[in-house]
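Budget justification note: compute hours in this period were largely spent on complex prediction jobs such as the one shown. Inputs:
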Amino acid sequence: MPAPTLPSEQSAAALIAACGGRITRTRLAVLGILRDSAHSLSHDDIAAQLLALDVHHDRVTLYRTLDWLVEQGLAHRVSGPDRAWRFNSGRDNAGAHAHFHCDRCGHIVCLESIRPDESLALPAGYRPERAELVFHGTCPDCGRRRAEDA
Amino acid sequence: MPAPTLPSEQSAAALIAACGGRITRTRLAVLGILRDSAHSLSHDDIAAQLLALDVHHDRVTLYRTLDWLVEQGLAHRVSGPDRAWRFNSGRDNAGAHAHFHCDRCGHIVCLESIRPDESLALPAGYRPERAELVFHGTCPDCGRRRAEDA
DNA sequence: TCACTAATGCAACATTGTAGCATTTCAGCG
DNA sequence: CGCTGAAATGCTACAATGTTGCATTAGTGA
Ligand SMILES: [Mn+2]
Ligand SMILES: [Mn+2]
Ligand SMILES: [Zn+2]
Ligand SMILES: [Zn+2]
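Corresponding output:
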């Protein structure tokens, strides 16, 4: 019998097809790259990986591919410190989880387990609909590396 | 006797001088504009106000002036949704207070009374140093305007 | 008033992203 | 399979935001 397929087990091709989109080499490669990465990737990071994989593409196509993935809920976007977006696989539900930004290596990772506290009392009149929470500090990798250096 | 002067009562000129900087028309005007505004201002907003005040200036000078004010702790920066910085008067201590971003009018305001919860338990290995908290939703002005429309 | 140097203005450049439009390629169909 | 129409791509040009280098101007203290 076919085991029930968790979303995380679905192939990139199946995920793309399920959205009613065409399966193209750029979409396949980009979604694969995002799903394989432990941290958020910038447009530039992804372009570099595509180059390494010999997946020819145009700058604009990559922007459009990323937009499409976000629209479809196959990826989500986090604003980086350098006014460039970072991308992660998976849907975010508009800021449903917090993110961690390492000031040493610059990596941004999703903290799926932490959701911003929506119940905070704001001053009168403010109607919050969602909250973005971004921690800054040192990530586990950089902490370990620092300990080894010492 | 001279009443003790609160920082908020100091003139822009005195604040600038206290930092050891020269008092120039651009610095005076920009700091004044920031201190008079109830919400964050983009580079472009400030340029428009300078124009209205007939304070001639160069684009680059304004960028440098804003950088300097932030360096000196006379202003702080918040990243907007459109990858353009917004500026507020006053020191922020690296994310010491939360901000509210109105999705209707685009205004960003400081919520001085709300500080991100630093005590949240992060996954093992993460060393947070500060947290940024940004609420999105409808601001009091837009809520009121909407109620009047109905 | 003078001299020193911080601050400015200008031109050129960098980065990140968008818009329009002709061309290619995917997916469904006979 | 080979066609065909629409979706996706590639290219060029453009826009927004910010930075760098360097010559000139103008605050400041003497
Ligand atoms: Mn995330
Ligand atoms: Mn603030
Ligand atoms: Zn790190
Ligand atoms: Zn508003």
